[in-house]
Structure formats: structure tokens, C-alpha cells
Amino acid sequence: MGIIKAIASSVGGGLADQWLEVIEPDEMDDKTVFTRGVTVRRNDSRNANRRGTQDTVSNGSVVHVYPNQFMMLVDGGKVVDYTAEEGYYTVDNSTLPSMFNGEFGDTLKEAFNRVKFGGVTPGTQKVFYINLQEIKGIKFGTRNPVNYYDSFYNAELFLRAHGTYSIKIKNPLTFYSEAIPKNDDRVEIEDINEQYLAEFLEAFQSAINQMSADGVRISFVASKGRELSKYMADILDADWGEMRGIEIQSVGISSISYDEESTKLINMRNQGAMLGDPTVREGYVQGSVARGIEAAGSNANGSMAGFMGVGMGMQSTTGFMGAASQSNQAQMAREYARPAQPAANAWKCSCGNDNTGKFCSNCGKPKPVVDTWKCSCGNDNTGKFCSNCGKPKPAKVKCASCGYEPDPEDPTPKFCPECGKPMQ
């Protein structure tokens, strides 16, 4: 028993009247993963099969399959035939299963062998459909804070995350046999999500740990949805694909929050980084003084007593505050007055352009080669005569046989120390 594609001329506007039964999927939205087929216009007076047996797909009946749907003929939980191609199909009791694989190619045949009917032509059948669209908007949230070591803060932090993820059914026969509860005619993703969510959150913890090991700062996690999807896919797809025929498509994080201790550590680290700037420190010192004077004016014993207290306090802390302010100002002065240091290999071309490479970036001239030599008086020179004592640059002596060059500062040997031949 199987299905064959219906002839195009036989599927016109009067299709429901011409065939014994016309079956199409029940309502299927973006959260429906599985539903049964229903008879079109079953109670219509023109339908010739109004007295048909319940749960029987008559020989010659037509089955509609729409885009992104997988249709199965099922008997007693076993698949008789299937198709992943949209179109109109007729049920033919005289044929073997046709198995229209569509986009799945031959990958479904192995799964079909595990769930197919035992061999006897069945007497009753049902039609079921599986949604092949991306199932979006599956909500998740971490029940407990997830640990995250951040190398930037050099601390073990803890975060909570909430968001959504999506899946796609990649092997509908495996999904039907392993994920769909038996005797259910309609399944929404939320009906079977409890187990998946537990596994998803476990994989989420592993993905977060991997992001931590890769050096991603904790504050960047919320913007790393695409990378997180890849981490999750690497962890889950092998298991979910083999066990249930589904894959992770995307992960979106809507919010990230930190536990109380992590928040304190982050704020303390950020405050310390800000106070590392001398301009911020100086502002903090001056602001502290201003706030003290302002508070003195609202002293319950009178502003004079308050200002007297401020004066005594200022006298006792003048040394500290002054030293702190002077230190900040000195550091700022050093920062602003520090001249820009030229690059170690910087040179100026004859065209006036400053360069660091081997060729001028303006005119293309090569970097000039400077021939330096050290005089016997110890002075470094570039010309033909020493700029300190006036001695001429020593002539280069070279062995004609092996090419040995003695140090110009040393006396020229009569014979080459390398090959023993006379020096020239």
C-alpha cells in the first residue's frame, strides 16, 4: 500500500466531489509540530463518502500536502508511506510505498526501516503531518545563576539569562518515533518542551563556559547571540539530531542580570578603573571637599559650628588632601606634557615625508643606507673623516681568496687568519 502523485487534471475545483475522501492538515501554526489530517467538507451533501468508516483512508482518496509539511500514512503507530514534497497524492492499495523524500534525499530511508509497517496491508489508516518550518520563540530562563569566569575582571561571576531559541525538524520520521507521544493527534512545542528545556539549559551552561574559556567578556554575552547559537549547535545538534531528528537554529538573549556579589565586584572594578585616571581622581578629591563644606552649612548646631569643624578637619587633613591633589596634578602634567615618541625605525625622506618602512609612502624612494664607522678615538661617524679628531675613515681591507674582512680598528694582518694567504 502506498501513495502516488495525483494527475493534475483531476485536482480541479471539484476535487472534494470527485474523490472518496480529500484529506488536508488540521490547523497548524508556528508552534504546532505535529497534527493529524482531517477530511475536507466531510458533512457536505455532495461528498460521496459521508458514511465512511472512522480512521479509514479509502483506496483512491486524495491527500493534500502543503509547503514545509511532511505527510505520513500511519497504521497502529507504524508508518506505511510518506512524502516531503508538496502536492496532491492518491492512496493506492495496489502499490508499494513510494517514499517521496523531497529535500531530505535518501536520509529518510534508514529511519523508515525502523518505523515502517510490519508487512501486512493494513485495513485502517490515519494521515499525520509534521511541521518543517523553523519553530521559533521557545522561551528559556536559567533557574539558578550560571557561573562565568571573566579574565578581564579576574573573578568568578554569576549571571542569569532569559531569551528564546528556535529549532528545526531535520529528520521527521525520527522525530515522530522518538518525540511524539503515542495516541496524540496534535502536539504543540510546549507540550514536549520540558525535557528539551532541561537539556537546552545544560548545554547553555556548557556554551557559556566555552565562551568564558575563549575570553569573551561577560558584558558582551548579550550581544553574542550568533556565536552562542554556534556553541549550542556544536553541543546539542549531534545528540538531538540522532536521538530526535531536530537541530538548534538560533538563540536570542533578551536579558542578562548578575547576582548581588557579582554586581558588587563589577562595580568595584569599574570604579577602580575610573579612579586610575588622574583627572577623575582630582575631581573626586575636589568633590569630596565641596560636599563636606555643603554638609557643614546644614549642621544642626549652626553653620558656624559646622564650618569650625570643617576648618579643624581641613587642618588635620591638609597634608593628605594637598599631597593627593599635587600627585594627581603632577601625573596629569606628565601625561599631557609627554612628547610623542617617534617610532624606533622612523626616518625622513628627502621629499620631507616621515616613514617607518623600507620605502617612502609618499614618493616610493628606498630608505637610505647609513654607513657608520667608529674612529680609534671612540667617536661614531658617517663621513670620510672623524668629526672629533679628523682622522680619515680607514680603508677596507679584504682577503682576495676567502673574503675575510678584519676589524678596521685593529692592525691589518699580513696574512689572512682564515685561509693564510697574504692580505691585500
Write the layout of secondary structure elements.
Layout: E1 2-5, H1 15-18, E2 22-25, E3 32-39, E4 62-65, E5 69-75, E6 78-83, E7 87-92, H2 107-115, E8 126-131, E9 135-141, E10 146-150, E11 155-169, H3 172-179, E12 186-188, H4 193-213, H5 225-244, E13 246-258, H6 260-275, H7 278-296, H8 303-337, E14 347-348, E15 354-355, E16 373-374, E17 380-381
Parallel strand pairs: 2-4
Antiparallel strand pairs: 1-7, 2-3, 3-8, 3-12, 4-7, 5-6, 5-8, 9-11, 10-11, 11-13, 14-15, 16-17
Helix pairs in contact: 2-3, 4-5, 7-8
Report on this model:
- The chain is an alpha+beta fold.
- Helix content is 31%, strand content 23%.
- The strands form four sheets. Strands 1, 2, 3, 4, 5, 6, 7, 8 and 12 form a nine-stranded mixed sheet that branches.
- The termini are far apart.
What is the N-to-C order of secondary-structure elements (H for helix, E for strand)? EHEEEEEEHEEEEHEHHEHHHEEEE
Poorly predicted regions are: 8-19, 45-52, 117-122
Tell me the Rg in angstroms.
42 Å
Q: Give the distance, in angstroms, between the N- and C-terminal Cα atoms.
A: 105 Å
Mean pLDDT: 74
The chain-level structural class is alpha+beta
Helix content: 25-40%
* Structure annotation, total helices: 8
Gross morphology = elongated
Number of strands: 17
